[in-house]
Amino acid sequence: MKRWMRVAIPFGLLTAAVTGTLIVHAVEQPDPDDPEYLTPVHVQQISGGTLAERLVAEGVTVERATTTEQAVSAVTKAGRATLFLSTPDLADLPELRKLPRGTNIVAVAPSELTLRRIDWPVTVEGSHWTSTVTDPGCADPVAAAAGPAAVLRTEYQADVGTTCYAGGLVSFSHNGLFVTVAGSPDPFRDDRIAEHGNAPLAVGLLSRDTRVVWLDVHEPDVTPTTPPPTQPTFEYTPDPDATDDYYDDDYYGDGDGGYGEPGEGDGQGEAEGEGDGEGEGDSSAGGGSSLRDDPLLNSLPSTFWATLLLLVLILIALAVAAARRLGAPVAEPLPSQVPANETMLGHARLYAIARARDESMLVLRDATRRRLTTHLNLPADAGTEQIAHAAGLPVRYVRDILDRDPPESNSDLVEAATLLQGLVRDVTGTHPEEGDPS
After folding, report:
1. Which of 77, 103, 153, 306 could cross-link to 99 by cystine, CB 3.0-4.6 Å?
2. Which residues contact 436 (CB under 8 A, 6 or more apart)?
3. Structural domain count of the chain
């Protein structure tokens, strides 16, 4: 039981410390579904009211939208504006396809699944425990003017465009839109905007146009769609006089665009067709069953894999600990009387298997002192100098043998044992094996 507790208690404390750290870290991280997260209407720790005030001070009009459809409509009516996606993982991504060409988009820390859904040419390369301050390392004028900023937490890699802050900020053009992806919300938060170059970076990214449409959603945003009218079944026989009107081309369009206006139907059909084609191409290229393309695995945070790896290492350590004897060898009574040489050989083999050179040296040294003090009629706790004076030998010679450093190798242990045997022979005049078996 004691041995089990010696193994369980350290690893239990380690597991509790790591688990507690992960839980506290997760609790301290702001959630996009928190109504205060990067909202422009409040000035609090995780809100974005300070950024909105700085934009207004720069002459930029900030317009808040609570749905993706409303934000896209506001950008379209404005003619030219910057769309700020503070929570891109909750936005209705298909609505972004309706944005006019030339629109600037700034997205804060989109996940790998979100990037795949919107089909932007950027991937998540990794994530950090906390936001890291790095230098721009690029020629982007906004980043260069801002200097070091804490924008690197999620690391991105873009096939095209500009990469800054070691992957914490990527900018690229896609389908006529100019997109900037930031890897951390810190530059936009009220409690972090004043640190380093966060404020110049956030204001610079959102002040490229004179208007900013701020999408402020904190739950999955889905644009409601009106389902098409149900066509009659074969069991229903419509009125012959109303059949022509019911199936009139004006109601269904020209037959190519589906429901609604022909122009809108064609555009939407082409957009969806292109998206489906690209998705099928990616699936066939990856084999369709690749673990790398699994959205469930891609949605798991890096801390999950770190915790899983730590648990595996703990199990391996427990297996190794259970497979060998822990601690120094202990003296146990023999079950029966056996020859001294056989007992000595068994003990020696146990010491050799455990590589207990220090313990072996201690046993040999104690046995030598016991034989010498007994032969010289000295107390059992007699020191080295007393033994040397009583034996008529130089103190330094006896000290070098009895008080030498622990052996570092098997050869050192053999040499020390030989010297101890020689000392006993010089003092007693007999070989150690010829005396008392003890």
Report:
1. 103
2. 371
3. 2
Answer yes or no: pTM beyond 0.70: no
12 falls within a domain: no
Q: Judge whether 100 and 78 are in contact, CB under 8 Å.
A: no
Q: What is the mean pLDDT of residues 308-327?
A: 74
DSSP-derived secondary structure for 39-60: -TT--SSS--HHHHHHHHHTT-
Helix (H, G, I), strand (E, B) or coil at 178: strand
Q: Where are the alpha helices (DSSP H) in 210-261?
A: 240-246, 249-252
The enclosing domain of 52 has a CATH number of 3.40.50
Element housing 154 (H / E) = strand 149-158
- Tens digit of pLDDT for each residue in 373-417? 888 888 888 888 888 888 888 888 888 888 888 888 888 888 888
Average pLDDT over residues 210-216: 94
Among candidate residues 197, 215, 233, the one where a domain is terminated:
215
SS3 170: strand
Helix (H) or strand (E) holding 108: strand 104-108
| C-alpha to C-alpha distances, 54 to 112, 204, 290, 316, nearest whole angstrom | 31, 10, 46, 54
